[in-house]
Each structure stands twice: as structure tokens, then as C-alpha cells.
Amino acid sequence: MFSKILIANRGEIALRILRACRELGIKTVAVHSTADEDAMHVRLADEAVCIGPAASRDSYLNVAAILAAATITGAEAIHPGYGFLSENADFAETVEAHGLTFIGPTADHIRMMGDKITAKTTMEALGVPLVPGSDGELKSLEEARAVAEKVGYPVLIKATAGGGGRGMKVAQSASELEEAWSVARTEARTAFGNDAVYLEKYLDKPRHIELQILADNHGNVVHFGERDCSLQRRHQKLLEEAGSPVLSAEQRDAIGRTATDALAKMGYRNAGTLEFLYQDGQFCFIEMNTRLQVEHPVTEMVCDVDLVREQIRIAAGEELGYTQPDISFSGHAIECRINAEDPDTFAPCPGTVAVYHPPGGLGVRVDSALYTGYRVPPYYDSMIAKVIVHAPTRAQAIARMHRALDEFVVEGIKTVIPLHRRILADPEFQKGEYTIHWLEQFTSRPH
Ligand code: MV4
Questions:
Q1: Whose Cα sits closest to atom 16 in ligand 1?
Q2: Which parts of the sequence belong to the ATP-grasp domain (predicted)?
């Protein structure tokens, strides 16, 4: 096991990783920008190194400074968290080239899944179901036309280097295809330096369901069930649930077996998430995330697992020590992301937290690096806390979240807590009847 880990991140996830390290008896090194001198992760870590100015590019994305900090402090491994360098294959490779351990998958697997066409063709060959569409890259507009006729309109043209909602164009009918094709390619070339695109049938009312996987370095692969992440706005998730309100235990077992078999054949290692669109009872793989995800706590609550601890143990070469039948699912968990934003306009609202009083009690978890007097800097993501509840049933989890948000006091800055309360009170949400489009409609309704 490692004796010292450098945490290449900030905010609540740096704290989350730090907590797992503490419980494993591992010393921690925080890195921080000049804007984060007073941040909680800096205060709680055993050592802290300033790696540059406020702008992420100069600090949290500064590979040379992070590696220097690891070397100076004698850290043996680096946990990247999510965002920043977490899905940067070159970073993973450089970390390993310096004799350190990257806590995550191999650079090759990160690179493979970063290219969406390679990700899809790899998964298809391993028996994972896809959205109907092109067989890999579209070589010409004529090919795009032929595939679109075959799968039927509307269709989406997607950039292989895109993902997470970037680099997509819809064509409602044949008359829109040429425009979608040329705009998608031009944008992909400009944004990613790679104009390779592929085509998929456009699914009009899917849910976004993702599957959490862990794989050790000894060929053991398990899944921890699904998260329903359909409640999002402009590709920013706002509320996530485990399990999905629409999935049966049998469906979970089936897609879980397909996914774990595929990742075992790939030789995948560490944590990974397969993203699916789910519509009309069918799973369609779209992308894979090769990192720990923001919403991992809902899985931790229903499976009673510490996913960060497992990531660290795996990276240290330990065996999982359990198999799929050992993993059980208990109750229901919901996470509300609390962003420092206006709840109506979603404009970021950085500033000083005048009063901070987090909720507590049975089945309530708060992952946050906030404290009274903390100044939320304007340079980074606006998410300041995650409230996670766990209860025997979904209805009880909703009641518990309502209660927790009632207790939550954050003064001095605006947050999206009022929006969460409205969502939780909505009859459609309570019935679990929502698709990826539901929240955008909900937030444009008068209230
Ligand atoms: C789609 C789709 C409909 N049909 N693909 C957006 C983000 C990226 N991960 C994939 N995305 C989508 N791909 C087909 N064939 C709709 C979306 C989509 C979406 C997906 C997941 C979560 C939120 C979304 C919001 C808008 C569109």
C-alpha cells in the first residue's frame, strides 16, 4: 500500500479523496492555486504545495508543477479526482513515466475511451448494445445519407473527439443532413483538431443511465449497479439517483453482466462508468468515463462501498477480494448538487459564505469543502456541495432529502437549493417519470 498520495484536485472531491486516504493510513499532499490558499483541502492535508496562479490552466492543469510537487514531497501515487487532468491520457502516462502510480485506468484505456468511435467499436465487438448508426467513422456525406436512410430520421452527427454533449448536430430530415454534416465537421476540427464524425439515430426521449464498474489488476471485474442521471440542464447534471426508478433487478443484472464481461475482456483496470441511453426498455451504450464521477456517492450508499478506497487499493495492486454475488443493493439514494448559482437564471454567484450549517441526521451525507467565512472563488466550477440521502424506499429518500434541504443553511451566496425543493415536490418527479429533457422544460415553466 502507498504511504503518501498527492491529490491533484480541489474542493469537495479533494476532501473526499483525503478522507479515504486517512482511513487507509495514507499521508496526503494537497496542491492548490493561489486562489485556494484558504481552501479546506489545503487545511486538512498533511502537506500542501502551491502549484500556480488562480487560472486552472496554470495550476490544476499544470502537469509539470504537479509532478514537481509529487517529487518534492515524496508522494508515490496521484489521485486526479474528476475533471481537470482525470481523463488526460498524456498526464497518466507522464505520471507513470516518473515512477509514480496514476490512480485510475491505463493511459491506453483512457485514450481509447476518449475517442468515441473507438469506444463504440470496442464495446460493440465485446457484445455491448449500441444506438443504431454508422459502423465507425463516416467517410463521406454520401455514406451519412445512406446510414441515415437505413436507421431513419432524426439522426445525430457526433464528433469522435466530443462527448459530454460537445460536438453534436441533429438532422431532423434528409434536407438538414448536409448542413449538420458540414457544421459538425467544421466545429469538430476547430474545437478538437479532429474532424472525424459518426452518425446515430436520434433517440427522442431517453433516460441517461450509467453503470459503475470496478476492475482490479488481477482480472476481477464487478459492477455496483446503475445511477439515473437524467435530471440535467445543458449537460450539467443536477440530481442523481441509485437505482434508476425504471429499472428492475433483472435488467440491472443483465446489463451488469454484459458490461463486466466486456471490461474483463478489455483488461480494464480501476473505476469506470459506462453511459447508456435507455429508451423503450433498451440500453444503448454511448460513452465510457474512465474516472471517478461526481455522483459516485449514491452508489456508495446503496452498495455500502467506499469507491475511492477501492480505487486506491486497486492501484496499489491489491485484489478486490469479493465477487459479484457479494455485492447487494439496499434501499434508494439521491444526490442533489448544490451550485453557487441563481436558482432561476443559473448565473454563477461566487462570494463569501456568511453562514454555513449543513444538514445531518439519519441517512444524510454532505460532501462539501465549504465553511462559514469561506470565499467561493470565481475561477472554478460552481458546485459547492453535494447532499446525499439514503433511505429504504425512493419515497422515503425524497422525504429525507426535503427534510435535509430544509435544514441546510448557506447564507451570503445564492444556491440552487430552492430549485431542488421544487423538483422534489413535483408529482412527475415523485412518480419517477422523467427523461433527459424533463428538467429543461421544468425550469422554463413559470413558478
Ligand atoms: C444522444 C441523444 C439522443 N440520441 N444520442 C449528449 C451528451 C452525450 N453524452 C450524448 N448526448 C446525447 N446523445 C442519440 N443517439 C441525446 C443526448 C443528450 C443527452 C444525453 C445524456 C444526458 C443528457 C443529454 C442531454 C441532451 C442530449
A1: 203
A2: 120-316
Q: Note the pLDDT tens digit of each residue in 98-136.
A: 999 999 999 999 999 999 999 999 999 999 999 999 999
Band of the pLDDT at 166, cuts 50, 70, 90? confident
Same domain, 324 and 434: yes
Residue 65 within any structural domain of the chain: yes
- Please give the Cα distance from 292 to 364 (Å, whole number): 21
Give residue 211 CA to ligand 1 midpoint distance, Å. 16
Q: Give the end of a domain, one of 201, 226, 260.
A: 201
Q: Is the CB of 152 under 6 A from ligand 1?
A: no
Confidence band, pLDDT 50/70/90 cuts, at residue 150? very high
Query: Residue 123 domain-assigned?
Result: no
Distance (angstroms) between ligand 1 centre and the Cα of 137 equals 18
Distance in Å from the first CA to the final CA of the chain? 53
Last residue in a domain, options 180, 201, 222: 201
Domain extent at residue 297 = 207-443
Domain count, the chain: 3
Residue 276: the pLDDT is 98
Task: Please check whether residue 262 lies inside any domain of the structure.
Answer: yes
Q: Does one domain contain both 30 and 53? A: yes
Cα separation of 410 and 415, whole Å?
8
How do residues 23-38 score in pLDDT, each as one tens digit? Answer: 999 999 999 999 999 9
Same domain, 37 and 160: no
Integer Cα distance of 75 and 342 in angstroms: 40
Q: Please, which residues bridge with residue 410 across strands?
A: 356
CATH of the domain at 419: 3.30.470.20
| Residue 112 included in any domain | no
The mean pLDDT value for 264-289 works out to 98
Q: Give the per-residue pLDDT at 274.
A: 98
CB of 131 sitting under 6 A from ligand 1: yes
Distance of CA 146 to the CA centre of its chain: 34
How far is residue 207's CA from residue 435's CA, in Å, rounded to a whole number?
A: 5
Residues 244 and 97 in one domain: no
Rounded mean pLDDT of the chain? 97
Is 159 in the same domain as 219?
A: no
Residue whose CA is closest, atom 17 of ligand 1? 165
Give the global pTM: 0.97
